[in-house]
Amino acid sequence: MKSSAALAPLPHRFTRNEYHCMGEAGLFLEERVELLNGEIITMSPKNSPHAATVHRLWTLLSQLLGTLAHVRVQDPVILDDWSEPEPDIAVCQPDPYDYAREHPRAAQVLIIIEVAGSSLSYDRNRKAPAYAASNIPIYWIVNLRDRQVEVLTDPDSAAKRYRLQQVASENEALPLPGGYTVAVADIL
Hints:
By secondary structure, the protein is an alpha+beta fold. It is 26% helix and 28% strand. The longest helix is centred in the first third of the chain and has 18 residues, at 48-65.
């Protein structure tokens, strides 16, 4: 006889493959979703400040980095078999095929940026551990409410956290690949 613990209900975690099959079958039509730790997460609608900040970031980073990096906007990044989030911005290593063959994997990501208004708690408490576990070296949370950028670096993949966290205000600049910097005021 099986123990009662074996019969306890458990949530089903979806793999990236299952997630893609559901998308191809039309399950997510007109819904913004992403896969994080095996869970399908429905994303909030984008408001104007969020959309404007994402566009501003993409424009700034594309101009500054040119061919040094591939700047992706709200496109998937493969963290592992259970997670394929769609960060607002992913600064990735250049790819000769512009990632047409496969989305960038965590090892190809230089910086991930999330623009946070209503998603601030989710970006801090769910996405930060997932990005740290995947060794994403730099994670910025553009905190629209407090008009600052939270910079998380030095991931500890085993502990699923970033060892270093700092807050950059509007009078500061943030380093980018290639020795470039971007002013926080220009982001906000």
